[in-house]
Write a structure and sequence with these properties.
The complex is a heterodimer.
Chain A lengths: L2 H32 L11 H28 L5 H17 L5 H11 L7 E11 L2 E9 L1 H24 L7 E7 L5 E4 L3 H20 L3 H19 L6 H32 L7 E2 L5 E3 L2 H5 L12 H10 L10 H18 L8 H4 L5 H10 L1 H11 L6 H24 L3 H21 L3 H29 L15 H14 L12 H19 L4 H26 L6 H6 L5 H16 L11 H8 L8 E2 L7 E2 L8 H27 L5 H7 L1 H8 L4 H74 L6 H26 L1
Antiparallel strand pairs in A: 1-2, 3-4, 5-6, 7-8
Chain B lengths: L15 H21 L3 H23 L13 H31 L13
Helix pairs in contact in B: 1-2, 2-3
Classes of the chains: A mainly alpha, B mainly alpha.
């Protein structure tokens, strides 16, 4: 099978099927409801089946694309083997200490590397404005195919889970958290179908981001993902908190997207294209170069270098002054701009504030939107756009990720809302991915993205199962639930072990997180040894591992271990139905063995990702604006001199975190309440989430609101007054016209004509005497008159 | 001066003009009858006369003896006359029905009393 033909077909179908489901549910359920009719077939489970069927079909198509088309056509290289070869190359370069980075690059290209297999093209061209071409295109490499499989698989699990979880919405629903003015609880129609409608649209948008072949298309689907998260977070729109959270998520994302637009403009104005890959004609000749091949040319050994057009553009922007760093600043602006979009979407510091609030949505939404896919879109874009990030941008990414990872992890320590702990842990794990990408660990970062997606959606779905059973999010009212709901408890334990990276150090046995997190920490170690001044980037991931282990096990102990704290809730708890537990088991399977090698082959996620590594990004690169900065070759991190201490440090810190949590929350050698008292200032600081919300409220929201108030008053007082005055003048003028012209002339002429017709009719009525003989006389007289007239007229004419 | 059209009718052989004259006389009689009779049945008879006067004209125009048209089938006038007769029969049936009804209601067939359709 020809992959160039079948891959766009399969993935395109997998991408569009959820859209079909969205349309079907909209037409079938939402439109009748909008027009005021309660659809005669009512709120039924059918919508759920449609959406779930669609996403399962997508999953099947994606898996066919991966296992049926991609793998048979592209031999997987063994990363370790390739790594060893490259290490040899690196060492050869290291021997010449004064060798320029350029020499290293020559070494790399000798040992490597065929370009990664990529299929890019356009499905449909939207429009062509001069040189601006907008199209619906695809850019398919191993990363795309793997992401397709991951996203659709998790989305399918979440859909299936939702069919059990959302059954309250099947009939009329009384919302216990909304009190109306008359003191009653809000009673409304169920919204089961609407939930699935949004889930379908969301899956479609996310798959669109993944498959997109150019930045413009990414941006479109990026915003679609944003609006879907807005819909889903605000699913219980009547609750004030959900309403605020939805707005917050949407507005905070807009801030990031503004930067993204700037980055896109910088790229387009200097490179003249949005496309990632090259555009080819039917014979396979390159017609137009994409972003990546313009920035990394074969003549330059695939090293990142600003193009001539970029340098010219920067000189133009500096008003003729020559670009000192050869277009590097423009590249920096473009990179940071694109990254700021990812900051918003992936909830990185300083835009991380929306994600914990987004827990107002139903729990399956949290699992889908806020752990596995939507926030993954940001990381995915950083990974996709990686070839265009200069070392300076990568440093920015690394520091942002590093800050995020630490801040979020510390906040998670004190949170008591089970979903908020998970939300902050998501933010923290996204920080890990960003750190890894920023340090040059492309495969490690993307690998963590995929393993994290599995275990985090597992954790969220488990927490949903718990909430479903005890009807509260508050962990201080749980405890001992292990006995009541064993499947949930032990699948969640698997998730916790995966997220802390449990495994036997220095071997290849462990949970999925063990592989990805250790890879990140090893790479951080390798980076730290090359750049001693950036030691924070080396140590924060290690410290973060300890904190992660602590808060995850705190969560598990508080929820499932010990004795029940609220007996009423404990007595009502029960294991969830099969629709909920089956997805948990499926996801737990992937959380455990997501990093393993498929027996008998060299098929594993890292090898797949290694195949997708963008051309030229493996080689070590050096900053131009910051000449001391060296982003190391990722394969160096497999060197035992980094791998051993990093692996031991990761294991040691994680074990220490688990031990501390066990001491405090299981064995109770230390009383958490006393600890709270003795560390009160720190506790308060963390409890109020580093006062980020208060800070933003004071610095951004209050001034904005005040300004808006002023502008609103100006609007009401001045602009409206002008408008009302103009309206009054118009009205008076038209009244004059009405009296003078309309009523006399127009109405007068029409009325006169009507009266004339009426009078004529009245007069003619007299002819109708009803007497038959008179009528005959009229006929005779008329005929005679006609004859006489004709005769005279004829005589006159001739 | 206008020539007198009827002066040489009596001296000429029988032709279309003679038939037309008879038709015109029948038509005039019929119209006079319709205009003067108060009895509804008399009015109906007048109508018959008018129609048959017209029929005579059609027959005259359609007759192959009176017309020097060798190629004509010569049945068109007769066909129209047949139509007129059929229509007259139908019309008479309806008119008689109306008259009978009128008689039932008013005990009279005086058309001057039937003036309910006046405007």
């Amino acid at each position: 099978m020809d992959p160039a033909h079948y891959l766009p077909l399969l993935l395109g179908a997998a991408w569009l099927v959820p859209l079909v489901s969205f349309v079907v549910i909209s037409v079938g359920y939402s439109l009748p409801q909008l027009t005021g009719k309660r659809a005669s077939y009512g709120v039924s489970t059918l919508g759920g089946y449609v959406a779930t069927g669609a996403i399962v079909l997508s999953t099947v198509l994606s898996l066919v694309a991966l296992f049926g088309v991609w793998l048979p056509n592209h031999q997987l290289a063994d990363a370790a083997h390739q790594g060893a070869e490259l290490d040899a190359g690196e060492h050869a370069a290291d021997e010449h200490e004064d060798a320029t980075p350029r020499l290293e690059a020559v070494q790399d290209t000798e040992h490597a590397i065929n370009p990664p297999p990529v299929y890019s093209g356009d499905w449909y061209e939207l429009c062509n404005f001069g040189s601006l071409k907008l199209s619906i295109g695809y850019y398919i490499d191993t990363l795309t195919v793997v992401m397709f499989s991951m996203v659709s698989l998790i989305a399918a699990c979440v859909h299936f889970y939702s069919m059990g979880y959302m059954h309250d919405e099947l009939h009329d629903f009384t919302d216990p958290e909304v009190t109306l003015e008359n003191g009653q609880k809000l009673h409304r129609a169920g919204r089961y179908h609407r939930f699935f409608q949004y889930l379908s649209l969301f899956s479609f948008s996310m798959l669109g981001v993944v498959v997109a072949g150019n930045m413009a298309m990414v941006f479109v689907f990026w915003e679609l993902v944003g609006i879907c998260s807005y819909f889903l977070i605000g699913f219980y729109i009547e609750r004030q908190s959900a309403c605020n959270a939805a707005n917050k998520a949407f507005i905070v994302n807009r801030i990031g997207d503004f930067g993204m637009l700037i980055g896109m403009m910088a790229l387009w104005s200097s490179l003249g294209t949005f496309a990632f890959g090259d555009t080819k004609d039917d014979q396979g000749n390159v017609v137009a170069q994409g972003i990546f091949s313009q920035l990394r040319t074969p003549e330059n050994d695939y090293h990142l270098a600003p193009t001539a057009s970029m340098i010219a553009e920067e000189e133009r922007m500096r008003a003729g002054e020559p670009a000192s760093a050869g277009g590097q600043w423009l590249l920096f602006i473009a990179g940071v701009g694109i990254f700021s979009g990812c900051v918003g979407k992936s909830a990185q510091f300083p835009l991380h504030v929306w994600l914990p609030d987004a827990m107002e949505g139903p729990t399956p939404v949290s699992a889908l939107v806020h752990s596995a896919t939507m926030v993954a879109a940001g990381v995915y874009l950083v990974g996709r756009f990686y070839p265009a990030f200069s070392p300076e941008v990568l440093l920015v990414i690394a520091y942002i990720g590093c800050l995020t990872l630490f801040i979020a992890a510390t906040i998670a320590i004190t949170a008591v809302d089970i979903k908020r702990v998970l939300a902050y842990s998501t933010v923290s794990q996204l920080g890990y991915m960003m750190v890894s990408l920023g340090l040059g660990g492309w495969v490690a970062g993307m690998f963590h993205l995929i393993t994290h997606a599995f275990f985090k959606s597992l954790l969220f779905l488990c927490s949903g199962s718990v909430i479903h059973a005890v009807h509260t999010n508050d962990m201080t009212q749980m405890g001992g639930l292990r006995k009541k709901m064993p499947i949930t408890a032990y699948t969640m334990l698997m998730g916790c072990l995966a997220i802390i990276g449990a495994g036997i150090p220095l071997t290849i046995f462990g949970f999925s997180g063990y592989y990805s997190k250790d890879a990140i920490i090893e790479h951080a170690w390798s980076f730290g040894s090359r750049n001693p001044s950036h030691f924070l980037l080396q140590w924060t991931p290690v410290v973060g591992a300890a904190i992660t282990a602590f808060y995850m096990f705190r969560l598990w102990y508080m929820t499932f271990a010990g004795t029940p704290r609220d007996h009423h809730r404990y007595d009502h708890a029960h294991e969830s139905p099969r629709a909920i537990t089956v997805p948990l088991l499926v996801l737990a399977f992937f959380a455990i063995c997501g990093g393993w090698t498929f027996p008998g082959t060299n098929l594993k996620v890292t090898n797949l990702l290694e195949q997708a590594r963008p051309m030229g990004t493996l080689a070590a690169s050096q900053g131009t604006l910051l000449p001391e900065l060296v982003v190391p070759n990722e394969h160096e991190s497999h060197d035992p001199k980094y791998k051993v201490p990093a692996g031991l440090a990761a294991f040691g810190t994680a074990a220490a975190g688990v031990l501390l949590a066990t001491v405090i929350y299981l064995w109770r050698f230390l009383n958490p309440d006393e600890l709270k008292q003795s560390f009160k200032p720190i506790y308060n600081f963390l409890w109020s989430k580093w006062w980020f919300d208060e800070l933003y409220w004071l610095v951004l929201v209050r001034p904005t609101m005040a300004l808006s108030g002023w502008i609103a008053r100006f609007d009401l007082g001045v602009i409206d007054a002008i408008l009302h005055g103009a309206a009054a003048i118009c009205r008076a003028g038209s009244q004059v016209v009405d009296v003078l012209f309309d009523r006399t002339m127009v109405d007068g002429s029409v009325n006169t004509f009507a009266r004339g017709t009426w009078d004529l009719g009245l007069w003619l009525r007299r002819l109708q005497t009803g007497s038959l003989r008179q009528y005959v006389m009229f006929i005779v007289v008329g005929t005679v008159l006609l004859f006489v007239t004709i005769t005279f007229v004829q005589g006159y004419l001739t | 001066m206008f020539p007198l059209p009827l002066a040489n009718l009596l001296t000429e052989p029988v032709g279309v003009a003679h038939y037309l004259t008879v038709g015109a006389i029948m038509f005039t009689c019929g119209v006079l009858c319709m205009a003067t009779k108060r009895n509804a049945l008399g009015v109906l008879m007048g109508i018959e006369l008018v129609l048959n006067g017209a029929n005579v004209n059609f027959i005259a125009f359609g007759s192959p003896y009176l017309r020097n048209d060798a190629n004509s089938l010569g049945l068109d006038g007769q066909l129209i006359a047949m139509f007129v007769i059929v229509l007259a029969a139908a019309e008479a049936a309806i008119a008689l029905a109306i008259v009978l009804n009128f008689y039932n209601n008013y005990d009279s067939v005086d058309v001057d009393r039937a003036d309910q359709l006046k405007g």
